[in-house]
Design brief:
The protein has 147 residues and is mainly alpha-helical. It has seven helices and no strands.
């Protein structure tokens, strides 16, 4: 199983474009913003978590943890693949349970669904491609190669 992940990681490293760095930074910043918003509006987040298949308030705390820890890691490009993978359950839940039931129409409707879908797709991409050339991951990799 670990060889599959190693092969995906190697393929992603070999096929990543430098312009993805801009998307990674924007994605990390957006996730930090959403985490801060949820932290300031914890009551709304808890209401959402209770309405999602009657899950506990622990789900709200996972969302906060994932966003407030994972967002800066993605922004800086540090353990980007791991941070992106930790975000996937949050965004899958947002797409399937929170936003999709509201409908697909973005005009006067639920544009939050489109934002969640795009965020989910970007997280999947960074889970595969990693942080890119201009990141703390790349600095760490170069340092390991020197030693």
């Amino acid at each position: 199983m670990s060889t599959i992940f190693s092969e995906i990681e190697h393929w992603g490293d070999a096929h990543r474009a430098n312009w993805l760095v801009v998307l990674r930074v924007a994605l990390g910043g957006f996730i930090v913003f959403k985490g801060a918003y949820f932290a300031l509006h914890i009551d709304q987040l808890q209401e959402m978590s209770l309405s999602v298949a009657y899950l506990s308030v622990g789900l709200a705390h996972y969302v906060l943890f994932a966003h407030l820890i994972g967002g800066p890691l993605i922004l800086l490009g540090y353990y980007t693949r791991t941070a992106s993978i930790l975000q996937l359950p949050v965004l899958l839940g947002a797409v399937i349970f929170v936003n999709a039931p509201k409908g697909l129409a973005s005009l006067g409707g639920n544009s939050e669904l489109w934002v969640s879908v795009i965020t989910l797709l970007l997280l999947i991409a960074f889970s595969i491609f990693g942080a890119g050339k201009y990141s703390l991951d790349e600095m760490r990799r170069k340092e390991e190669m020197r030693h």
